[in-house]
Specification:
Blueprint lengths: L8 H30 L1
Keywords: Membrane, Transmembrane, Transmembrane helix
Length: 39
């Protein structure tokens, strides 16, 4: 397993960006589900 410290700064930034995108996708899914339920 690759240690966090050995990862380059660029790799860490990319990981954070991916996590943020995933969280935004989940937020949008939740909003759409709420719309469907309220409909």
């Amino acid at each position: 397993m690759i240690s966090w410290m050995r990862l380059g700064k660029k790799s860490k930034v990319n990981l954070v960006k991916i996590l943020v995108q995933i969280s935004f996708i989940f937020l949008n899914l939740n909003k759409n589900l709420n719309k469907l339920i309220n409909f």
